[in-house]
Specification:
single chain, 730 residues, mainly beta, Maltoporin, Chain A, 22-stranded antiparallel beta barrel, five-stranded mixed beta sheet
Length: 730
């Protein structure tokens, strides 16, 4: 975007915001209180010195948040999309921090959590929401209380707990591409001491990508899940929550190109891998082919078990949180090359199993005559990954590599944070986390040439283990100017773990890369004004990241990640909510950031194909997926219809995304884009039923979310008709 257009947009946005402040209000309209656990204990969102966006169930319905990927439409300075090929994997870029690799030796810098349990793999982090109480998106490093791999932030999902009141809801929908959706939940208390909840969902559609080579529609979805939860209340001092959930999600996100308005592909991979022997590169002679994935596409099966035992201890509350997560994934996918290369330039056949066990002991207490709010604990993680995968070039004509990767992580962390009342209005926050982790890697080769084994790595000088110890402190000062307005300043450190280039097709290509570290500085204001009709939350931030992990794809099919210099990002984030009347609410989320690479390595030679942070002419590239401006404006109005005993609730939301680049080496440039979502609901006055019609990406905009040899576009416009029925008072 030109400087003139940027100035015009910001001036226009400022004028719109000023106009909102002048809207007429009524006496009884008030903002809703939102509780968050951004500091690992419950508090009002207006009281925590953390940049956090929070959405309860009602707000998620208004903003059309049905899965985690929808968060990119509403969170300031958040950009993202599905990873290339894999529709179950989200790559989040928050304040310029992100990761577009889903293999297990790469860790994402935006952590995902479900009920305080860390989700280490982003292979299946596009959760379809059912029975969610709220979502919190913490922006900026959360290294003290949430730990490693949160340099960009954290997505914290809190599910509903079993209720003493029986009841539930069922919901069904039909939409474009013959989509059918069903969700349902029921609370069934056994007695006052044992409460249970059961939830399920199903999503199916025919897909939006036409295959002109073998016929049929692809990028379809078949997703289903089940969750059972029980809450034990043996006495007034103990609460024990147990849950188990299973999700089976089949969804690919393969590249599409356009023939008129139709999205098409001409890949022949849905016919399966060729059965004939292939030429092996590098090396000589044929290699028999054994297909791993059962069929074309991407499939994940996830089993999660969570136990959270809360009990009184030492004048405070302790939690023993244990989580187990097992993920099985298989995919057989094509990755197109640029013209004149076809959609079958590069193939991956993948079968993986990923197991993670975490245990955490956490203690919250008020100490020293309630002058100190303390939280501290110990965290353990044990992760094991097995990935069996093969790479092919030119429609299966050449086999690049076929190997089994074994890697794991063992991590232990100790953390503590205290909020110290230093005056009637001032609070000093001091926090510290110590993390010690060990990562290991091993290889076995499925080919007759045995070029990729652990012994080959050692011979090539590649370390098969990495040890990392890191200290991540936090210091903040909060000042309550009055009961409605507070401000804070903070400095926080975070780090992201290192790893290996496991996409490499030779032992020497399995180069390790180290951890990246980051300091973030914030100044924020949280305020409710106009008798709780207007809320303005603002955050200024500046981040200084060192040893940046950047990934680049080279023309010969290599995927290389290195520690290449640093990244500086400064910006402003605004979240504004106004309720002019009981019937009308307005929501604004705006992010402005300036990201630039720093301290880049020397040695770039034109035409550049190796250095991710330079373009082809060795000029410094723009950091990927870091638009200067993201603005969302949404509004909902409630029209009473007494004759129907219901109300009509139209909703509209606009997302403006500034000019950005989505790939390394300045590849995949997007012009500024405006995405519109809209809907209307007819809601029963007694809250028993509702009917909703809505569209997502209503004007069918086409913009690039990723670039791997060729651009990957966002999904097309979708619409949905939905009916919900609440029973037994829910």
């Amino acid at each position: 975007m030109t400087e003139r257009r940027t100035h015009f947009f910001r001036r226009g946005f400022g004028a719109a915001a000023a106009a909102l402040l002048c809207l007429p209000t009524v006496a009884n309209a008030q903002l809703e209180e939102i509780t968050v656990t951004a500091e690992r204990r419950e508090a009002s969102i207006q009281d925590v010195p953390v940049a956090v966006s929070a959405y309860n169930e009602a707000l998620m319905e208004k903003l059309q948040v049905q899965e985690t990927l929808d968060l990119v439409n509403i969170v300031p300075n958040l950009f993202g999309g599905n990873n290339t090929g894999v529709g179950t994997a989200n790559m989040y870029y928050l304040r310029g921090q992100g990761n577009d690799e889903s293999i297990a030796t790469f860790d994402p810098p935006v952590g995902s959590y479900i009920d305080d349990v860390y989700v280490s793999r982003q292979n299946a982090n596009n959760f379809a929401f059912f029975d969610v109480d709220r979502i919190e998106v913490l922006r900026g490093p959360q290294g003290t209380l949430f730990g490693r791999n949160t340099t960009g932030g954290a997505v914290n999902i809190i599910l509903k707990k079993p209720s003493a009141d029986g009841g539930g809801f069922v919901e069904a929908a039909y939409g474009r591409f013959n989509e059918f959706m069903f969700r349902g939940t029921v609370d069934l208390p056994v007695n006052e001491r044992v409460l249970t909840k059961f939830s399920t969902y199903l999503i199916r559609n025919d897909g939006w990508l036409e295959n002109t080579a073998v016929g049929g529609d692809f990028n379809d979805r078949d997703s289903k899940g089940f969750r059972g939860a029980v809450r034990f209340l043996p006495n007034d001092n103990v609460v024990w929550d147990l849950s188990v959930d299973f999700m089976d999600d089949n969804e690919a996100f393969t590249q599409s190109r356009f023939r008129g308005d139709d999205r098409i592909t001409d890949t022949i991979l849905p016919n399966g891998l060729p059965t004939a022997a292939l030429t092996f590169v590098p090396g000589a002679g044929p290699q028999p082919v054994t297909q791993k994935a059962s069929e074309y596409g991407n499939s994940t099966e996830t089993l999660s078990v969570t136990s959270n035992l809360a009990f009184g201890l030492g004048g405070g509350e302790a939690n023993l949180i244990i989580g187990y997560r097992s993920l099985e994934q298989e995919f057989l996918l094509n990755f197109p090359g640029g013209a004149p290369v076809s959609d079958d330039f590069f193939w991956i056949d993948n079968e993986g199993e990923h197991d993670m066990l975490t245990a955490e002991f956490k203690w919250n207490a008020q100490l020293f005559d309630d002058k100190v709010d303390f939280v501290g604990g110990v965290f353990l993680l044990d992760e094991d990954n097995t990935t069996d995968f093969a790479d092919y070039l030119f429609g299966g004509a050449f086999l690049l590599a076929d190997r089994v990767l074994e890697n794991g992580t063992e991590s232990i962390a100790l953390y503590a944070q205290g909020d110290i009342a230093v005056s009637d209005q001032g609070t000093l926050t001091l926090g510290l986390r110590y993390t010690d982790e060990e990562k290991t890697i091993g290889l076995s080769d499925n080919t007759v040439f045995q070029g990729l084994t652990t012994a080959n790595l050692i011979a090539a000088g590649i370390p098969t283990s990495q040890d990392e110890s890191n200290v991540t402190p936090r210091i903040a000062y909060t000042h309550d100017f009055n009961d409605e307005v507070m401000g804070y300043v903070s400095a926080t450190r975070g780090f992201r773990s290192g790893g290996w280039n496991a996409r490499g097709s030779s032992a020497v290509a399995f180069q390790p890369f180290g951890a990246e570290t980051l300091w973030s500085y914030e100044a924020g204001m949280r305020g409710d004004f106009l008798d709780d009709k207007l809320r303005i939350n603002a955050t200024l931030f500046s981040t200084d990241l060192e040893d940046l992990q950047t990934t680049s794809a080279t023309p010969d099919g290599q995927f290389l990640t290195t520690n290449a210099g640093g990244l500086d990002v400064t910006g402003l984030e605004l979240e504004i909510t106004i309720v002019p009347t009981d019937a009308w609410d307005i929501f604004i989320a705006a992010g402005f950031q300036d990201a630039e690479y720093t301290d880049l390595p020397e040695g770039c030679v034109t035409p550049n194909s190796d250095f991710a942070a330079f373009d082809v002419n060795c000029a410094v590239a723009d950091p990927k997926r870091s638009p200067d401006t993201t603005v969302t404006i949404g509004t909902t109005y409630n029209f009473d219809l007494p004759s129907l005993g219901a109300s009509l609730q139209p909703t509209a939301m606009m997302r403006y995304i500034g000019e950005n680049v989505v790939g390394t080496r300045q590849l995949g440039v997007n012009d500024a884009e405006v995405i519109v979502n809209a809907g209307v609901s007819l809601v029963d006055d007694d809250g028993v039923w509702s009917v909703t019609a809505e569209c997502n990406n209503c004007s069918d905009e086409e913009y690039t979310t990723s670039f791997l040899f060729v651009p990957y576009f966002t999904e097309p416009m979708t619409w949905q008709l939905r009916y919900r029925y609440n029973f037994l008072g829910k």
